[in-house]
């Protein structure tokens, strides 16, 4: 059935491009946060193990809501690892050790990258592509990442 939500097909395609890149970033960040949760070592293991679990559960929800937003604008979400790796702004590589500090610093960098990407696209989505709903949605996701970044930043502060 044709999507008729007051946004042109061309603009819905452009919104989908923005959302698909975000979805890829969320999925890569999700897997990197899982890695931290699984492989963490150190004196703070228990608290940081739970901390990373909270984060990956939240990011898992983000992936679902971003994919659903793509469907709401009338398109299909990417869903393979190959697609995600082609679309993401993040690197799947991790070069730190298994300490909470190194994992937190790496994950913070990824959250900051996602925050900047979203911030760069909010007004474009609303003004250029005429999709206030997705712009509002992106603002909400950005605010969630800002909170997670704050928590990570506070964790590694000296």
UniProtKB/TrEMBL annotation:
Gene3D superfamilies: 1.20.1260.10. Coiled coil: none annotated. It holds the Pfam family Ferritin. The keyword DNA-binding applies. Residues 18-157 form the Ferritin/DPS domain. One of its GO terms (molecular function) is ferric iron binding. Keywords: DNA-binding. Belongs to the Dps family. PANTHER family: DNA PROTECTION DURING STARVATION PROTEIN, GENERAL STRESS PROTEIN 20U. This is Starvation-inducible DNA-binding protein. It comes from Gelidibacter sediminis.
């Amino acid at each position: 059935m044709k999507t008729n939500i007051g946004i042109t097909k061309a603009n819905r395609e452009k919104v989908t491009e923005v959302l698909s890149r975000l979805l890829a970033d969320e999925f890569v960040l999700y897997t990197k946060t899982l890695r931290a949760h699984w492989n963490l070592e150190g004196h703070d293991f228990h608290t940081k193990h739970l901390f990373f679990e909270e984060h990956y559960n939240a990011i898992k929800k983000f992936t679902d809501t971003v994919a659903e937003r793509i469907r709401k604008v009338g398109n299909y979400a990417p869903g393979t690892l190959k697609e995600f790796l082609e679309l993401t702004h993040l690197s799947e590589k991790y070069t730190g050790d298994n300490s909470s500090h190194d994992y937190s610093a790496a994950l913070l960098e990824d959250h900051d990258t996602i925050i900047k990407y979203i911030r760069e696209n909010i007004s474009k989505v609303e003004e250029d592509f005429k999709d206030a709903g997705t712009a509002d949605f992106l603002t909400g996701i950005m605010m969630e990442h800002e909170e997670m970044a704050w928590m990570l930043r506070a964790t590694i502060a000296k």
